[in-house]
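Supplementary Methods, section 5.1.

A reviewer requested that the exact input to the structure prediction be made available. We therefore reproduce it here, unchanged from the version used in the analyses.
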Amino acid sequence: MLEKIFKLRENNTTVRTELIAGLTTFMTMVYILALNPTILSASGMDAGSVLTATAVASAIACFCMAAFSNKPFALSAGLGLNAYFAYTICGTMGYSWQAALTAVLIEGIIFIILSLTNIREAIFNAIPGPLKVAVSVGIGMFITFIGLQNAHVIVNNDSTLVGLFSFKSALADGTFSSEGITILLMLIGTILIFYLLKKNVKGYMLWGILVTWLLGIICQLCGLYKPNPDAGFYSVLPTAIVSAPASMAPTMFKFDFAFIAEHPMDFFVMMFSFLFVDVFDTLGTVIGCASKSGMLDENGKLPGIKGVLLADAVGTVVGACCGTSTITTFVESSSGIAEGGRTGLTSVTTGVLFLLALFLSPLFLTVPSFATAPALIVVGFLMMQQVSKIDWSDLVDAIPCFICITMMAFAYSISEGISFGVISWVILHLLCKKTDETSVLMYVLAVIFVIKYFLI
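The structure derived from this sequence is encoded token-by-token as follows.
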């Protein structure tokens, strides 16, 4: 039955491979169930309700991905978008979380319309081939940076913005037993995953996560690792396995439509900001993951892209109704794809695990970031391998690709990388009179991006 539904043989995969891929994807993105409630609670939302809403909306969105496209992408509440929701709209701007949730709902509805009218598909197809490769490479750099940050290898530094963790300082100030040991475990986990990858071990990424977590448990039991919750280092020992999910009632359908009439311009700005980042984060993630896994056809197009984008849009609407910020396609999907996931069965597996997490949240939320960070770093390595597909001797194409790659990591945003890549591509091709390589839609996108930087 699964063969008929998901066309496994046609996609050169098996049930076992898809299940492992779905589990791997879930393990690398389960942190969102702990992080999203923490962020959104800063806006005044009930943390327990947000956790349940995030899990339910993520599961439904994953099921939609499988039903609409049969692609292995997983979805959940987007990082960055939830921070904008809590800290900018509800913090700096001072508006209620109900108003922000309304903006997410309207953005999702517009997103559905754009998906059904082929506008988003046209944007995807309009992006030139070299720039699509650059997006994939940029995501590789970006996700590596995320992994290094999550593991505290890369830390804040007042003089250089970012810096390398210092073992010498950790030994001197007594933080080695909490922070230092986790970095060593992360390094061991990274080496292990690379070794298993080299040996072609099935499920290498999942095994790496589980073994690193187990080593952390052993270190805590032996006293080598000492949790320090105040510094963000928690126990890796599950205190319980089963728990009842919190009610979504405090946040479900809590919209403030009156705000639209009272503050139309403010509402438009916040809604458009959600829409813009959602559209181009999704496109970037899909381009990167699909390019790495060979899903794009000979023309650089992704068969079934409309279903992928529609699932993302529906997920956002469902998420708003449940009571959480924008649901979007996760770049961590690449970890499952790296494990061989090629069909919607991967997405379904991830969705089912999100639902299980409602009842097994004490277990899943105990998976430490130092255990999942190695997987992100290895995925970054795999995605950056495509850099060889860019013709670096053709400077008119190569320079925008370089800008796209670097800005995606340094601006800490997939959408910003795409913006700078598109703008620089159009400018250089105009100056060098190579306009035949650029579609009309690329010029339109470049103008929109420039306007965005000056007006929003």
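Residues 103 and 270 are 7 Å apart (CA to CA). These observations are discussed further in the main text.
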